[in-house]
Specification:
Elements (H helix, E strand, L loop, with lengths): L17 H9 L2 H10 L5 H10 L3 H20 E7 L11 E4 L6 H12 L6 E5 L6 H9 L2 E4 L5 H20 L5 E4 L14 H7 L7 H6 L3 E8 L5 H13 L7 H13 L3 E7 L4 H6 L6 H18 L5 H10 L11 H15 L9 H30 L1
Parallel strand pairs: 1-7, 2-5, 2-6, 3-4, 3-5
Antiparallel strand pairs: 6-7
Length: 390
């Protein structure tokens, strides 16, 4: 498939553009401030010299980004693991579609896992609502990210969706680059992960064939991401509480930056990625004679079922399920020590909520919310298991 659509405003920088864009980035005072914040004690002049010696995106990921992620793995996790590598072929390019937990690290840790297994990294979809400053746009496009345009009027939104669809088809079939994209716009605040129908519609817009052919043309591989602990859980609870008090509440740019910083720097426990099987065969088995809306619902269900079945379940998930449902169904899956650790963790996270005049009823509401966040992955996994038994 050849394509004459202009992708320059959304595509990652080319390797030819890379040196000049990097020169521009390292001169940004705010970039220097952020680097010194996330890399305490760094010699910025020496770091800048290293950045300027890198000549292309793949080298940037392996020489600069990999050591940074290794430090994050060592200091903020109890290890990052990946399973299902046998489900993908090194000679193929895929659309890795995952649930979404962390603004920055979902795709970063995925690519880090690929690098550790000497595999090609994927290009990363990122919403333009997060590109608060020009230097952030430069940074992500230097790091193999492409831009998803959001909050547009209807006609502009359709044009942007066609451009994005065409770019993903182009990246996979012409550039031979895999891509990562979240299954929905924004993170699922309650961890109830469901694929957005508009995303599937977007992928089917371009490709030169029928809806099914276009979807098979991007080789969707569902990907389940499981963090033992979500550092942003208390921020999500805060947002729920603020919206409960005021339905018109909207997050600020500062809130987004705080979420990014918290997700990057705070403790996450164990982190696991599980690659499902490419859904091309299941798509081929679907009848395109069915109503288009029903077809898209079936595709979303296929993706959701794969992601839900592949969650890695931790003691906190079992404990949260039992507490939310007032049961001891999973008491054999955790110890008294696990229970105490979970209670202490939730108490410490809720103590971080910076909202004034919280009532006892609101405290109970927040505790139920945070428990539900950790219970929902298990609830969804159980639903798949029970459905398969019927």
């Amino acid at each position: 498939m050849s394509c004459d659509i202009d992708f320059s405003d959304i595509a990652p920088y080319s390797d030819e553009e890379f040196p000049e864009k990097m020169k521009h980035l390292v001169r940004e005072p705010e970039f220097e401030r952020v680097i010194k914040s996330v890399m305490p004690g760094v010699d910025y002049a020496q770091f800048t010299s290293q950045l300027l010696s890198v000549k292309d995106k793949n080298s940037f990921q392996r020489i600069i980004i990999r050591p940074f992620l290794e430090r994050l793995e060592a200091t903020t996790t109890d290890g990052i693991t990946i399973g299902g590598l046998e489900n993908i072929s090194r000679g193929m390019s895929y659309t890795f579609m995952s649930n979404h937990r962390d603004i920055v690290l979902d795709a970063s840790f995925l690519n880090f896992s690929f690098i550790k297994h000497d595999m090609p990294t994927s290009e990363i979809a990122i919403g333009n609502n997060l590109l608060i400053y020009d230097w952030i746009t430069d940074l992500v496009k230097l790091n193999k990210s492409f831009i998803v345009k959001r909050n547009l009027r209807m006609i502009q939104a359709l044009e942007a969706a066609r451009q994005l669809s065409a770019y993903i088809h182009y990246a996979i079939n012409e550039k031979k680059e895999s891509v990562w994209i979240a299954q929905r716009e924004g993170r699922a605040k309650d961890s109830n992960d469901l694929t957005q129908e508009s995303l599937v519609k977007m992928l089917g817009l371009e490709g030169g064939g029928s809806l099914g052919e276009n979807l098979m043309g991007v080789h969707i591989v569902p990907l389940a991401i499981s963090y033992e602990y979500d550092p942003n859980d208390y921020l999500k609870v805060t947002e729920f509480l603020m919206r409960r008090r005021n339905p018109e509440f909207k997050k600020s740019q500062h809130d987004d930056l705080l979420s990014m910083e918290t997700g990057i720097l705070q403790y996450k426990g164990k982190v696991h990625f599980q690659l499902g099987k490419c859904i091309d065969a299941e798509l081929e088995a679907l009848s395109e004679e069915m109503d288009r809306t029903e077809y898209i619902k079936h595709v979303c269900a296929i993706i959701d079922r794969s992601i839900h079945s592949d969650y890695k379940i931790y003691p906190i998930n079992y404990i949260a399920f039992d507490e939310v449902n007032n049961t001891d169904r999973f008491r054999d899956y955790y110890t008294a020590e696990d229970r105490k650790r979970t209670d202490d963790y939730i108490a410490s996270q809720l103590a971080k909520v910076e909202v004034t005049d919280i009532t006892d009823e609101e405290r109970d509401y927040m505790r139920h919310l945070i428990l539900s966040m950790y219970a929902n992955p298990l609830i969804n996994k159980l639903a798949v298991i029970e459905d398969n038994l019927l």
